[in-house]
Each structure stands twice: as C-alpha cells, then as structure tokens.
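note to self: dont lose this again. the chain is below, predicted strucutre after it. 202 aa total, dont forget to put it in the shared folder this time
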Amino acid sequence: KVPGISGRFWCVTYANGKFFAVGDGGVSISTSYDGINWTSAKQIASDKNMNDIIYANGMFVMVGRKGYIMTSMDGDTWNAISVGNNVLNRIIYHKGKFIAVGEYGMFSTSTDGKTWTKMAYIDFNDTQNCKAIASNGEKIVVINESGYLSTSVDGITWTKFKYMGVYLVFVYNLVYSNGKFIAIGQSYVDNEYFVYSTTSVD
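---
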C-alpha cells in the first residue's frame, strides 16, 4: 500500500528515472524509482481529481474531471488549466500534439500543453464516454466505454465508429506495445475482466 493514498490510483507514468502515480484525494502524487517502494503521496490540489497522466515533449500533463488539465515541467510544481466542464478521461501525445478525450466523445488538442482547443465531438452515435486512446505513431485509436472505436491520423478528422468485436464490455484503457493495440475492460454480463489485442484496427 502506498503511504498517503487512502483510495485508488487512477494513472501512472514513467519519466526521468521515476514512476509518477496519481491517486484519490484531490490530486495526490507519489513517486518511485523501482515501482515497489513509494514516497508518501503529496497533495498538489485538493479541489481537483485527475484521470490520466503522461510525460511528453519535456513536460507532464494530467487531465481530469470538470475539464481540468494540470501541467508541470519537473513533476513538483504544477499549473492548472480549465478546458470547458466535461470530464477528460485520457491523454496521448501524437505527432507533436497532445490529444485529450472525455465524456460524450468530446476531445481537445494542444501543441504545447498550455493552450488548448476544444474540438468537435467524435461521433460514436451514442452518448458514451471516450475511455481509452492510444497511438502507434501513425494512427490514433479511441474507444468508448461500450467498445466502439474510431481512428484518426491527425487527431482532428475521425473515421466512422465501428464495434471492436468484444460483446458487452466496459473498456477501461488502451495501450500500444510491441506492434499491438491492447485494450483492457470488463464484461457487463459476468463481470469478468478481459484483455483484447489486435495488430490492425482497419
């Protein structure tokens, strides 16, 4: 158990030789050099809750509820930005641009992590939240919580949604590793957890 975290961890990233984990309690950050021994969590904001963190383009960027985004150059000093009121669930860095996705298919983009543009909604033909996003360096894949996906090469124009092929799922996250997109989630039917991978989303 990580000292200082009374609830759950929502996200973790690795940068500058350390793991950075963000947990409940406003925004509480704990760090570790080995992933086993963790510092006592430091609260950097009591009125915000973050869902994801990445390190890209020389900076940390976190996204969370009520459209909050927080940035840091060193992982210690943080600045808060607000992009609308929608929940932001995940963030990636793709071809020189940060892309954050959230509820109702809303997404925002930024080239520097500080100035953000709220874009048109990704049309999934429903009102489900975008829960997962990943890039293989050429193509972005985003999946909503019902298992429908859309793709883009630039983070602006998105393909028509299609079903990812797993029946009745709640998708938690998506990563790209070793030539595969890997999604994790849970079945609505029996609550079993699953891992689904594919080399192609076309």
